[in-house]
């Protein structure tokens, strides 16, 4: 019989139990025992769920309290000295590395003040990993045995699992050198880290594990020759190590063929490849297998919520069986199910027709099992029939297609995506209009989403207060934020977004063509979970979405007020997009909707408009080539469609975070001002890359995901480093990102220090 396999399962709990307990631990409301108890309950539930569904190969060590890559850094002692000197407990070290830590000394604890490690996007997903940071003095060793402990935990329940660990080549390549070791190439540490991998694998074998999933996702990237060669070095070393389990090397999110030569013939038990994202690689990867190696066929989508088409999935797996035989084929999810919501049965309010098209992580367990049974010759006719009906229902539905939207997209021309004048002419007009000082200060958009805001939003949603009452409350919150910004001396203000639950969901709820869940949460990073909307059909804008709040905010202040919008690519990428048409088709629809909103914002009084596109780098195809060029063309064009209808005096801003950006990518947007997450970047070359960026830029000065409050002196030092390579007359002063996750005490102190630092530099430059 062909086996079924799941590469990993969501670790957040069906109702966000992990988030609630983790944040309670951070705030001191619960202790470690309660945190660890909830983590154990989630793991046990996940394993039992998969066992009950009939999954044959179940992952362990897919659980994390923060991030699986950060777990490995802690496990392998890749801990920068700035953390070890405080001698924190392992879990507190993990959290300090992930989010920073700042606390005053007490009778039982000494003072701590440490920033977080850099956080970046996990390939082209909206998940963020904490980037490993290495130095010449990094000494790898095992700190504990988390993968072994969790394997034994499942074994005690009577459930055999396959531990999963990020592989050595990917782990090093995805890391970076510390600022004091910039000449270090992380891949050069391979020989130092391999003995620790071998030690871990031997411990897993001694515990009873017969196979281990080694994730090497970088196989879908453009890799230097030195990194390609590292695969042979790594896996030949591990093959020669004593007492290690069988290894299955897993890659996902793309096509491995450009790196296929580097893994062909490796002495491993088998490989996993993603055939949802890259079915075209099938013939070549099959030909590269040895006569004994198994192939894990990633055919159930781990990145989206649409039901698998069983007829297509079965046909694809049967092709693999024809080439290799049943004993060498495993039916699997394309990747970990980390990127999908937990359970569709918890959705009680979804339209029944649309709900029938969806499959969340729990339902995908059934999908992978059904496909495995079908290709094994078992009778699953009823399941196949029900699935075929659901696929046909979606294809034939009137919800999916809107002829008016398609006609509007067909009318797009080059003029629609071009500003009226080039940036120098716009800049002159904007200087005369706004008369901003040197080093203008602003924020990225959101302010703290307080308990009071959440309570009132919930009351309004439930009908416990009227629309008029809710509107009055929102206006009072906007005024509070506006007066605070005026008080501390910010130059360009925002309304704080108290009316918004999420920067994508808020707009999606007001656009036709979207569906929404109640419990469809997905982890973005740490305890930050998102509830992505689902694009179910062609998208259009029935009415204004943000005009009322932005116009009101501008009416109560004489300072410029930014109208805050989310860009078309970010709305698309941070939703679950359609899989029946390409994103190239979906993006301009959203661009046209944003254009209507921007044009409606402009006439009353809002003359600074920020259209955030943090996902534009995330959506970039993982390899260079024509696909990447095509993406950049439609992505930047969709942004310009949305923003090019304004006057020269109107200033267009955009924002980007937690990605390795290329200045050429954002240059094509032709925004007047861009703000970029920067506080965790410690490579001076990164600043240099933007020194020739023609328009204005704000490099984020403090980490909004950390409760830590930077001092005025720290801001002054940070700005000083930037000004060594970046022109003062083009530099804006701002945080990394929006402030919705922070408390008011932190926000007040951090922004005040930031503004005072900007004033210090204005005085300094005025004297020169």
From TrEMBL:
Cofactor or coenzyme needed: Zn(2+)
Enzyme Commission code: 2.1.1.14
Cofactor binding comment, as recorded: Binds 2 Zn(2+) ions per subunit.
Sequence ranges assigned to domain Cobalamin-independent methionine synthase MetE N-terminal in this UniProt record: 4-320
Keyword Methyltransferase among record annotations: yes
Superkingdom of origin: Eukaryota
Alphabetical keyword list: Amino-acid biosynthesis, Metal-binding, Methionine biosynthesis, Methyltransferase, Transferase, Zinc
GO terms under biological process: methionine biosynthetic process; methylation
Residue positions binding Zn(2+): 655, 657, 677, 737
GO MF term (any one): zinc ion binding
Residue span, Cobalamin-independent methionine synthase MetE C-terminal/archaeal domain: 439-759
CDD domains assigned: CIMS_C_terminal_like, CIMS_N_terminal_like
Annotated positions binding 5-methyltetrahydropteroyltri-L-glutamate: 19, 126, 574
Sequence positions that bind L-homocysteine: 444-446, 612
Binding site for L-methionine: 444-446, 497, 612
Pathway, per record: Amino-acid biosynthesis; L-methionine biosynthesis via de novo pathway; L-methionine from L-homocysteine (MetE route): step 1/1
Record function comment: Catalyzes the transfer of a methyl group from 5-methyltetrahydrofolate to homocysteine resulting in methionine formation.
HAMAP family: Meth_synth (MF_00172)
Family of this protein: Belongs to the vitamin-B12 independent methionine synthase family.
Stated name of the protein: 5-methyltetrahydropteroyltriglutamate--homocysteine S-methyltransferase
Organism annotation: Komagataella pastoris
Highest classification ranks of the organism: Eukaryota, Fungi, Dikarya, Ascomycota, Saccharomycotina
């Amino acid at each position: 019989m062909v086996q079924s396999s799941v590469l990993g399962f969501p670790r957040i709990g069906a109702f966000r139990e992990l988030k609630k307990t983790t944040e309670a631990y951070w705030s001191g409301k619960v202790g470690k025992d309660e945190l660890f108890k909830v983590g154990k309950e989630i793991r046990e539930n996940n394993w039992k769920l998969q066992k009950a569904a009939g999954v044959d190969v179940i992952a362990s060590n897919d659980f994390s309290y923060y991030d699986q890559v950060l777990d490995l850094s802690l496990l392998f002692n890749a801990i920068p000295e700035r953390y070890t000197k405080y001698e924190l407990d392992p879990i507190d070290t993990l959290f300090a590395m992930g989010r920073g830590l700042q606390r005053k000394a007490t009778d039982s604890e000494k003072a701590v003040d440490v920033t977080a490690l850099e956080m970046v996007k996990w390939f082209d997903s909206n998940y963020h990993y904490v980037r490993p940071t290495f130095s010449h003095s990094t000494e790898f060793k095992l700190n504990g045995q988390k993968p072994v402990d969790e394997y034994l935990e499942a074994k005690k329940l009577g459930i055999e699992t396959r531990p999963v660990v990020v592989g050595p080549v990917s782990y090093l390549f995805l890391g970076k050198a510390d600022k004091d070791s910039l000449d270090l190439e992380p891949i050069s540490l391979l020989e130092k880290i391999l003995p620790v991998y071998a030690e871990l694998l031997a411990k897993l074998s001694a515990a009873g594990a017969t196979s281990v999933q080694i994730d090497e996702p970088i196989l879908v990237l453009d890799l230097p020759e030195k990194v390609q060669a590292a695969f042979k070095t790594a896996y030949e070393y591990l093959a020669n190590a004593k007492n290690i389990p069988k290894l299955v090397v897993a890659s996902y999110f793309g096509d491995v063929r450009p790196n296929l030569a580097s893994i062909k013939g490796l002495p491993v038990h088998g490989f996993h490849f993603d055939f949802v994202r890259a079915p075209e690689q099938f013939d070549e990867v099959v030909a590269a297998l040895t006569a004994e190696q198994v192939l894990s066929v990633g055919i159930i989508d781990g990145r989206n919520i649409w039901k698998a088409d069983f007829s297509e999935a079965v046909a694809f797996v049967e092709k693999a069986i024809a080439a290799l035989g049943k004993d060498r084929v495993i039916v699997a999810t394309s990747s970990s199910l980390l990127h999908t919501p937990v359970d569709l049965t918890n959705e009680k309010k979804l339209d029944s027709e649309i709900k029938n098209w969806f499959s969340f992580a729990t339902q995908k367990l059934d999908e992978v099992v059904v496909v495995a049974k079908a290709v094994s010759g078992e009778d699953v006719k009823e399941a196949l029939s029900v699935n075929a009906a659901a696929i046909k229902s979606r294809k034939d539905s009137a919800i999916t297609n809107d002829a008016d939207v398609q006609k509007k997209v067909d009318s797009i021309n080059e003029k629609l995506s071009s500003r009226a004048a080039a940036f120098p002419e716009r800049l002159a007009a904007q200087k005369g209009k706004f008369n901003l000082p040197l080093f203008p200060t602003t924020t990225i958009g959101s302010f703290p989403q307080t308990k009071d805001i959440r309570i009132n939003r919930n009351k309004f949603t439930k009908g416990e207060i009227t629309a008029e009452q809710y509107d009055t409350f929102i206006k009072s919150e906007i005024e509070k934020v506006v007066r605070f910004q005026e008080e501390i001396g910010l130059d360009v203000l925002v309304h704080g977004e108290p009316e918004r639950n999420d920067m994508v969901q808020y707009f999606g709820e007001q656009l036709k063509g979207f569906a929404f869940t109640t419990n469809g949460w997905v982890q973005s990073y740490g305890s930050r979970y998102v509830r992505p909307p689902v694009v179910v059909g062609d998208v259009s804008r029935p009415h204004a979405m943000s005009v009322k709040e932005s116009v009101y905010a501008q009416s109560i202040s004489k300072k410029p007020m930014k109208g805050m919008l989310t860009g078309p690519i970010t709305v698309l990428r941070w939703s679950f997009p359609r899989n029946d048409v390409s994103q190239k088709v979906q993006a301009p629809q959203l661009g046209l909707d944003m254009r209507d909103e921007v044009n409606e914002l402009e006439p009353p009084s809002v003359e600074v408009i920020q259209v955030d596109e943090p996902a534009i780098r995330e959506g970039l195809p993982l390899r260079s080539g024509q696909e990447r060029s095509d993406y950049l063309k439609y992505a930047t064009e969709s942004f310009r469609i949305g923003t090019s209808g304004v006057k020269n005096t109107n200033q267009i801003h955009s924002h980007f975070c937690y990605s390795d950006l290329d200045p050429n990518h954002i240059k094509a947007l032709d925004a007047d001002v861009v703000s970029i997450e920067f506080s965790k970047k410690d490579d001076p070359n990164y600043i240099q890359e933007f020194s020739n960026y023609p328009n204005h830029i704000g490099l984020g000065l403090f980490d909004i995901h950390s409760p830590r409050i930077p001092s005025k002196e720290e801001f002054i030092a940070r700005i000083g480093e930037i000004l060594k390579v970046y022109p003062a007359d083009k530099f804006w002063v701002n945080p990394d990102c929006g402030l919705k996750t922070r408390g008011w005490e932190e926000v007040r102190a951090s922004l005040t220090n930031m503004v005072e630092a900007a004033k210090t530099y204005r005085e300094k430059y005025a004297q020169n």
